[in-house]
Amino acid sequence: MIDAVAATWSELTSELLQRDGYRSARARRVVVDVLARADCCLSVPEIVETARAAGETVGVASVYRVLELLVDKGVVQKIDLGGERAHYERVDHAQHHHHLVCNECGRVEPFSDRELEAALEGVQARAGFAVASHDVLLRGECDDCRAA
């Protein structure tokens, strides 16, 4: 079941697109639904596979077009985790998080840390800089890869 925050994001995204003159399109609905349900960022192949697992078919080119639109509208962010593929996730200020990335297997784990956020706010205040957004990416090896 989709949680309330994701449902709200999905509804707001659909309303924004409709207000801006975009008609409802199946590929857009599928991509929005996949991102609304995702706990963290996904690559395009992961979005396509997740849609297929849910019984929906969507072309790779359509997914790229939808993501480009959603990034342009500011409701999805493109995240460069290194490697060959970009990742995408919904912009969700209520559930802000950062990423841990395994250098060996590529696993991506979200994490949140109130002390880190407080430290970043302190940097912002000391620097006299109004930060609009920030991303923290920590690289290393996951427990599974270290054990192997």
Task: Summarize the structure in words.
With 148 residues, the protein is of the alpha+beta class. The chain has two domains: 1-91, Arc Repressor Mutant, subunit A, CATH 1.10.10; 96-148, Ferric-uptake regulator, C-terminal dimerisarion domain (Dna Ligase, domain 1), CATH 3.30.1490.190. 47% of the residues lie in helices and 14% in strands. The chain contains six helices and five strands. It has helices at 4-19, 26-37, 44-53, 60-72, 114-127, 143-147; strands at residues 76-79, 87-90, 98-102, 108-111, 137-140. The chain has a three-stranded mixed β-sheet, with no helix packed on it. Helix 1 (4-19) runs antiparallel to helix 2 (26-37) and helix 2 crosses helix 3 (44-53). The radius of gyration is 17 Å and the shape is globular. The model has no long low-confidence stretch (mean pLDDT 90).
Characteristics:
Arc Repressor Mutant, subunit A, two-stranded antiparallel ribbon, alpha+beta, 3-stranded mixed sheet, 148 residues, Dna Ligase, domain 1, 6 helices
Question: Can you give me a brief rundown of this structure?
Answer:
This protein has 148 residues and is α+β, with helices and mostly antiparallel strands. The chain is built from 6 helices and 5 strands.
What is the CATH superfamily of the largest domain? Winged helix-like DNA-binding domain superfamily/Winged helix DNA-binding domain
How far from one another are the termini?
35 Å
Shape: globular
Percent of residues in helices:
40-55%
What Rg do the Cα atoms give?
17 Å
| CATH architectural category of the largest domain | Orthogonal Bundle
Order of helices and strands: HHHHEEEEHEH
